[in-house]
UniProtKB/TrEMBL annotation:
Signal peptide: none annotated. Pfam families: dCMP_cyt_deam_1 (PF00383). This is Cytidine deaminase-like protein. Residues 35-152 form the CMP/dCMP-type deaminase domain. It comes from Apiospora arundinis.
Amino acid sequence: MSANDKFPAEANDGGGSAASLLPSLFPERAPMTPAQLAAGVEAALAVQRRAVTFGKRPFAAVLLAPDNETVLLSHQSVDQVNHAESSLARLAYCHYDKAFLWRCTLVSTWEPCGMCTATIYWAHIGRIVFAGSNDQLYELTGPGNKENFTMDWHTRDVLKGCPQKDIEVIGPLEAEGKIVVEESDKYWGPTRRSHS
Ligand SMILES: [Zn+2]
């Protein structure tokens, strides 16, 4: 049996087969406006700025409520294993139930890595927004950077392997991403140069 037999194409259609089997866990999400996207990224960026002052790497995420505006939780990067997004997703799953989280949005300054995207999937958070892309991050960190051996995974790549849930992904964001790149490079620049 191939993967396609197990996960038929219609599983990607309108919330996936899981949504048709368990509709109460997949309530409709309110679309995000450009202003809500910008405000969400700015909230995450404020967490990132503070994290850097504590010597943490420039990554941060916030969880927005179903109104797309209220910040319910936030998390900075703790270390190379406890990333901002996966830490936030685990925390969110402790606080809220699946049906509620499906209508929430995780907003990250940077594109969630493979580990974080998978954790967001398991936490049942229905939407991911990110500003800077993984490719941009690799440009900032460079190769052989002991502070971040950047993966070549993309959020959408990981979710292609998760057809049962139609998690919405918005990003990278051009204007917001530019700000995130510029601010994050203040941290990555010296680490990158030390390895060149
Ligand atoms: Zn991560």
